[in-house]
Design goal:
Chain lengths: 352, 126
């Protein structure tokens, strides 16, 4: 089992540790619901050091990115971050990731912890011959600070306004007193205002302690999951996998079909067989991944993520239904009983 | 920590018996392990159940857990307050967070349950 540099800090705070894709991570400290609400109402932070960081650099780096992901070329601008995917030849999602563009010849991919090895192999086999592919995952730790009051925290730390950093933009190589920040971006996975800081492990430990002193609440993976579910954001292994295309996952706006990339032909030829939906329970019960969705006695889909929404006080889920399915009233099979639910537009929660 | 006047199962239920009626809930240890409770499915009143039959479900943020009845008998009352406030289980597991009341059909089954000392040993030694 792997540990992040913040493991000792999680133990000190009473974090309940679980196995997350081979990582010993805190699922919660005291209460998932309280942690969730602190991000919606104030500010919270997450250890995201388990995420993978892969540097693509040198000659052909940009062509490598353009070949491996469906990202729009204009988004590969210095100082910009872009949400994208690695796609297989069938258009299925190998991983979802963020591409940070440093310059024409240097990019950083932030990938899911459970997919680092798979991604590295895929990229190395297909990178341009003179392009370097380097796994920096062990050298980089990271914290995500999220919530309506994250701007105040940001201002205190960096002495400039978070609002001057546009959504999905970043700054590099910032000195904070004695701390060297490698990268800070206005990104997140909660649907709130927020930022993510990447630095060396020792720096991240100091920063975590500083943020705690500033009143930022430590939040675990449980809250991270319920927050991203409310925000309608997909999670690899739930909404996304190698059998699912970005079009089926309602992510076509992140696919540039004007140019070539691995998986494009299949994406254009293959008729989508399912579509991602949001649902709310009408009969009270908790929908969970894997439960079947029915309509008029017929199975029409399955739940990919579900749970209690602390912000709405309702039971919500995301899932897939057959692409042609157009009804709104459905049932979820929970413990051998069909329970009524209704399709709902995503996201469930939008910040005010 | 573990109330002395109750009997326990190894599945972390407790029972308090007064005048042939048992009140059942989950232990403080169990609610701590589960974390925030967000939904409870209670049995139907009038249902006849057998010892260690799954009769209720407690759902935390992360998972669903079956609740077993410590004794056989008939369900005579359920805690309706849990429908709107399932977190009562977290706040007061031995009091307001009770799950159901059962009329014991085999009171001798109580003797097979764990005492407070035995339950305490179970959760401290794992």
């Amino acid at each position: 089992m792997k540990r992040t540099p913040l493991y000792e800090e999680h133990i000190l705070l009473g974090g309940k540790i679980i196995d997350f894709n081979g990582w010993e991570m805190p699922v919660q400290y005291e209460s998932i619901i309280e942690e969730h609400l602190s991000v919606r109402r104030n500010v919270g932070m997450f250890d995201i050091s388990h995420m993978g960081e892969i540097e693509i650099s040198g000659e052909g780096a940009k062509d490598t990115i353009l070949n491996l992901t469906p990202v729009q070329e204009k988004k590969l601008t210095s100082g910009k971050a872009a949400y994208s995917f690695l796609l297989n030849e069938r258009g299925g999602i190998i991983d979802d990731l963020i591409v940070y563009t440093f310059d024409e010849n240097r990019f950083l991919l932030v990938v899911n912890a459970g997919n680092i090895e798979k991604d590295l192999n895929w990229i190395r086999e297909r990178a341009s011959p003179k392009t370097n592919v380097k796994d920096l995952s062990k050298d980089i730790a990271a914290i995500s600070v999220q919530g309506p009051n994250s701007g105040k925290i940001f201002k205190n730390l960096f002495n400039f306004d978070l609002s001057s950093l546009k959504y999905y933009s970043f700054e590099r190589e910032i000195e904070l007193r004695d701390l060297k920040i490698q990268l800070v971006s206005r990104t997140g996975y909660t649907g709130e205002l927020g930022f993510e800081i990447y630095a060396q492990p020792e720096t991240i430990i100091k920063l975590w302690k500083t943020l705690l002193e500033m009143g930022v609440k430590a939040c675990g993976l449980g809250a991270r999951d319920s927050l991203r579910l409310e925000a309608g954001m997909p999670l690899y292994g739930h909404e996304l996998d190698e059998e699912t295309t970005p079009i089926e996952a309602n992510l076509e706006k992140f696919v540039d079909t004007e140019r070539n990339f691995i998986g494009k032909e299949a994406l254009l030829e293959r008729a989508p067989i399912k579509r991602l939906i949001g649902l709310k329970m009408v009969d009270k019960s908790v929908p969970r991944q894997g439960q079947r969705i029915f309509s008029n006695g017929k199975e029409v889909g399955y739940v990919t993520s579900g749970g209690f929404s602390p912000s709405l006080g309702e039971y919500i889920a995301m899932g897939y239904v057959k692409h042609e399915f157009k009804e709104e009233e459905i049932s979820i099979e929970i413990r051998d009983k069909l329970r009524k639910a209704i399709l709902t537009a995503l996201p469930f929660y939008k910040r005010g | 920590m573990v109330p002395k006047d109750l009997r326990y199962t190894s599945e972390h239920e407790w029972i308090r018996v007064e005048n042939g009626i048992g009140t059942v809930g989950i232990t403080s240890y169990a609610q701590e392990q589960l974390g925030d409770i967000v939904f409870v499915e209670l049995p139907e009143v009038g249902r006849e159940v057998k010892k260690m039959e799954g009769v209720a479900v407690v759902e935390s943020v992360k998972a669903a857990s079956d609740i077993y009845t410590p004794v056989s008998g008939k369900i005579v009352e359920v805690n309706e307050d849990l429908n709107s406030s399932p977190n009562l289980i977290n706040e007061d597991p031995y009091g307001k967070g009770w799950l159901f009341k059962i009329e014991l059909s085999k009171p001798e089954e109580l003797e097979e349950l764990l005492s407070a000392e035995e339950y305490e040993r179970l959760i401290t030694e794992g």
